[in-house]
Amino acid sequence: MILIQAIIQPIRLSTVRSALQDAGYPETMVSDALGYGRQRGQTATFRGNEYRIDLLRKVILELVVDDEDLDEAIAIIRSAAKTGSQGEIGDGKIFAIPVAEAITI
């Protein structure tokens, strides 16, 4: 089993969740997060003053899949989470982490 952690833009969450559910991956967990990667934050203007937003809002979507489903699940997340035709800086990251055991409570 593999734990997939996808850090994506909040505006893409519903699209990614719908795509995963349609493909047969309905079990997900979602958390709010703040951070930045290569885009290094954003600059904004408020009442004529310019200021820098260092930490951008993101969401972390997590799901556990069987080893043989990893490539399919990652492809679904990548295609649903990217903005534009090629994707943009800030669209997110996907991590695949081995899971030794899953225990139902």
Can you describe what's shown?
The chain is an alpha+beta fold. It has two helices and six strands; from the N terminus they run E-H-E-E-E-E-H-E. The protein has helices at 13-22, 70-81; strands at 2-8, 29-35, 42-46, 49-53, 56-65, 92-98. The strands form two sheets. A four-stranded antiparallel sheet has the order 2-5-1-6, with helices on one face. A two-stranded antiparallel ribbon has the order 3-4. Strand 3 (42-46) and strand 4 (49-53) form a beta hairpin. The modification O-UMP-tyrosine is found at residue 51. This is Nitrogen regulatory protein P-II 1.
What key phrases describe this protein's structure?
Alpha-Beta Plaits, ATP binding, elongated, phosphoprotein, alpha+beta, 105 residues, two-stranded antiparallel ribbon, 21% helix, enzyme regulator activity, 6 strands
Report the structural category. alpha+beta
The largest β sheet comes out as: 4 strands, antiparallel
Number of domains: 1
The portion of residues assigned to helices is: 10-25%
Kindly provide the name of the CATH class: Alpha Beta
Please mark out the parts with pLDDT under 50 across 5 or more consecutive residues, or reply none: none
Beta-strand share of residues: 35-45%
- Quote the average pLDDT: 88
**Helix tally?**
2
Tell me how many strands there are. 6
Shape: elongated
Radius of gyration: 16 Å
Read across the widest sheet, the strand sequence of neighbours is 2-5-1-6
Which CATH-level-2 architecture?
Answer: 2-Layer Sandwich
- One letter per element, helices H and strands E, the order comes to EHEEEEHE
Per the CATH scheme, the topology name is Alpha-Beta Plaits
Distance between the termini: 18 Å
